[in-house]
């Protein structure tokens, strides 16, 4: 298994080794010891989630506030998505910047998104089955979002606007400078603060 830092170094790209023959293939998708060795801290994933979405479905950008902030390890089982993580840590040198990477059943890459980031994805194939681990439980009361098309973010979702399909909730999320953010200086970005220009 190979690990590398994305343009925003706290985000980690995981590429498994795939061993195949005429019968099929085998691959280790996650190894706790190797992964923790690379990120140099412990991670305790406690919940696995899976969703199926059709072409053009955009889910995001989502995050949870402390004490239910979540790190995520995301991957695609079938199909292809553009996966996006936005830095929402006030004081971070990459605040408001994002990482966008294609995840697919072909490349078998996973993306680790730590606490302090908003996350979303759009389906680029006929459909996609999306799977992810989180290190904190889902809490509706702490669930928050960021508007996917905020011009401050400048995200290219790879599909024309008329092909995107979003929930009413995601169409009404606030802009970057109106959200509750994380404080970059706090350990694991556990404290949240209001940040406005």
Automatic annotation (TrEMBL):
User: Which pathway does it take part in?
Assistant: Carbohydrate biosynthesis; dTDP-L-rhamnose biosynthesis
InterPro entries named among the record's database cross-references: RmlC-like, RmlC-like_jellyroll, RmlC_Cupin_sf, Sigma_54_int
The UniProt entry's GO biological process terms, in alphabetical order, are: dTDP-rhamnose biosynthetic process; polysaccharide biosynthetic process; regulation of DNA-templated transcription
Q: Which GO terms describe its molecular function?
A: ATP binding; dTDP-4-dehydrorhamnose 3,5-epimerase activity
Query: What domain of life does the UniProt record list for this protein's source?
Result: Bacteria
Instruction: Give the first-level EC class, as a single word.
Output: isomerase
Q: Which CDD domains match?
A: cupin_RmlC
> What GO cellular component entries does it have?
cytosol
Q: Which UniProt keywords apply?
A: Isomerase
Catalytic function, reaction form: dTDP-4-dehydro-6-deoxy-alpha-D-glucose = dTDP-4-dehydro-beta-L-rhamnose
List the residues marked with site Participates in a stacking interaction with the thymidine ring of dTDP-4-oxo-6-deoxyglucose.
138
| Residue span(s) of domain Sigma-54 factor interaction | 1-89
- The EC number on file is 5.1.3.13
Q: Enumerate the Pfam families for this protein.
A: dTDP_sugar_isom (PF00908)
Q: Which residues form the active site?
A: 62, 132
Would the keyword Isomerase turn up in this protein's UniProt record? yes
- Isomerase is among the record's keywords: yes
Subunit annotation: Homodimer.
The family annotation for this protein states:
Belongs to the dTDP-4-dehydrorhamnose 3,5-epimerase family.
Functional summary from the UniProt entry: Catalyzes the epimerization of the C3' and C5'positions of dTDP-6-deoxy-D-xylo-4-hexulose, forming dTDP-6-deoxy-L-lyxo-4-hexulose.
Name of the protein in question: dTDP-4-dehydrorhamnose 3,5-epimerase
Species this protein is from: Cecembia rubra
Write the lineage as a comma-separated list.
Answer: Bacteria, Pseudomonadati, Bacteroidota, Cytophagia, Cytophagales
